[in-house]
Amino acid sequence: MLSAKSLFQEILDDDEAFRLFCSIAAGGESQGGWENGRIAALVPPALAELAPKVARHGADEDKHGRIFNALLKQRGLQPATVPYETDYTLLLERRGIGLAHDRLSREEPLTEHEIIVYLSHSRVTEQRASEQMRLLLKHFAGHPALGRAVKMISRDEDNHLAYCHEELLRFARAGHGRTIQSVLRECARAEIRVYRDVSLAVMRHMGTLLGWPRAKSALLVAGIHAMYAYERALGWRRMVSLEQPALRDALGGPAVPETEFA
């Protein structure tokens, strides 16, 4: 029977599949760390109180990248080259979602609108990250090799999502509600397409590495398309709603250092 747990267990049990999985995850987290670091450096003076929170967000993402690389090192594996079609963060940028890297490379303070775009993009992508990590937490919290990593990253992703909700609500109260909803919807529509495409690409690569029969691959492809159809019709709404999080000021302190995994 196919399930999220059984599929990930297959990946976990195979060195090459696990190597690809961790390399994709590490690359995305490290890229997120760079982006948040640059945004923190470019926060406009009028929003200076936001800069330490953005920096904390970036430090957390860098930490996650190091954790995934440490998990590879534990098994004596080197990072793999990440195939272009599996690079979630790059493909989102190519679709014009979030702040472009050429913009972040300039030494020019961001505008208030660009900060809203950043937070809206993060609110959508952190929803996905939080859900994915909660799924892994459900099945692998007690795993001897993965348990500590999954718990730490899942907690951080929940904090990131809470921070995005709280900061966007501040901007909404300041009169930017319509802009926020427009940007959130644009980001959500693009994200569900990119997530579908990346999921299909990852499944193709995993199927090759793990020798999946055609029937199994076809079933997984059908499942990915069914999830996309649901998200396109209704599921996207969970990515654009805003509510006051139970945890306030989730990124108000220093980043929590990773446990030693190497």
Could you please describe the fold and organization of this structure?
- The structure is a single chain.
- The chain has helices at 4-13, 15-42, 51-74, 88-94, 101-104, 112-140, 147-210, 214-233.
- The protein is globular.
- By secondary structure, it is mainly α.
- Helix content is 71%, strand content 0%.
- It has eight helices and no strands.
Strand and helix map with partners:
Layout: H1 4-13, H2 15-42, H3 51-74, H4 88-94, H5 101-104, H6 112-140, H7 147-210, H8 214-233
Please outline what is shown here.
This protein is mainly alpha-helical and 262 residues long.
- The arrangement of helices and strands along the chain is HHHHHHHH
What is the beta-strand fraction?
under 5%
Low-confidence stretches: none
Largest sheet: none
Q: How many H/I helices?
A: 8
Radius of gyration: 18 Å
Mean pLDDT across all residues, rounded?
95
Characteristics of this structure?
262 residues, single chain, 8 helices, mainly alpha, 71% helix
